[in-house]
């Protein structure tokens, strides 16, 4: 790892349009930055929507990247990739072509107007935790094994590996 580089975990979700293609493109776009190197990609999972209005199932995946970007610069890069997929913010937790969240940035703990790390809702979301645990069975979030958190998450039933339509 480059001196000063940090490992970040990013969670991607899509439930509008050609979600499988969107996720593949987004992973490539996230990695297509001189300050970002892709380390690992989880399986794609199909998940029931958590919160928000009645909406289609999601496809979700998690990646880990090694990055030289500062946390807010990584957030800006994630949002640029969301915007490239015509992400429109209408309803909270509403359907979207692409969502990219920063789940962890090394061990950084941070909370300001635009960025909270670790992501404040990740520890209860199977759609983040289960693919993360499959990608990295030893992963830990704020001191607790991610696999243990996934097993307790209310949205775990209904989550399945996406094999393609
Ligand atoms: N760790 C984080 N990753 C991504 N965005 C974050 C994070 N912490 C705070 N934010 C802020 O949250 C704002 C709203 O993000 P977004 O619209 O993606 O929320 P959401 O995906 O609908 O809901 P949720 O935050 O529950 O996943 C962003 O504009 C960003 O500034
Ligand atoms: N299954 C699922 N549900 C969600 C998702 C998501 O990615 N997958 N994202 C949300 C807001 O980030 C709200 N609800």
UniProtKB/TrEMBL annotation:
<dbReference type="InterPro" id="IPR000550">
    <property type="entry name" value="Hppk"/>
</dbReference>
<dbReference type="GO" id="GO:0016301">
    <property type="term" value="F:kinase activity"/>
</dbReference>
<dbReference type="InterPro" id="IPR035907">
    <property type="entry name" value="Hppk_sf"/>
</dbReference>
<keyword id="KW-0289">Folate biosynthesis</keyword>
<keyword id="KW-0418">Kinase</keyword>
<keyword id="KW-0547">Nucleotide-binding</keyword>
<dbReference type="GO" id="GO:0005524">
    <property type="term" value="F:ATP binding"/>
</dbReference>
<dbReference type="GO" id="GO:0046656">
    <property type="term" value="P:folic acid biosynthetic process"/>
</dbReference>
<keyword id="KW-0808">Transferase</keyword>
<dbReference type="GO" id="GO:0003848">
    <property type="term" value="F:2-amino-4-hydroxy-6-hydroxymethyldihydropteridine diphosphokinase activity"/>
</dbReference>
<comment type="pathway">
    <text>Cofactor biosynthesis; tetrahydrofolate biosynthesis; 2-amino-4-hydroxy-6-hydroxymethyl-7,8-dihydropteridine diphosphate from 7,8-dihydroneopterin triphosphate: step 4/4.</text>
</comment>
<protein>
    <recommendedName>
        <fullName>2-amino-4-hydroxy-6-hydroxymethyldihydropteridine diphosphokinase</fullName>
        <ecNumber>2.7.6.3</ecNumber>
    </recommendedName>
</protein>
<feature type="domain" description="7,8-dihydro-6-hydroxymethylpterin-pyrophosphokinase">
    <location>
        <begin position="92"/>
        <end position="103"/>
    </location>
</feature>
<dbReference type="Pfam" id="PF01288">
    <property type="entry name" value="HPPK"/>
</dbReference>
<keyword id="KW-0067">ATP-binding</keyword>
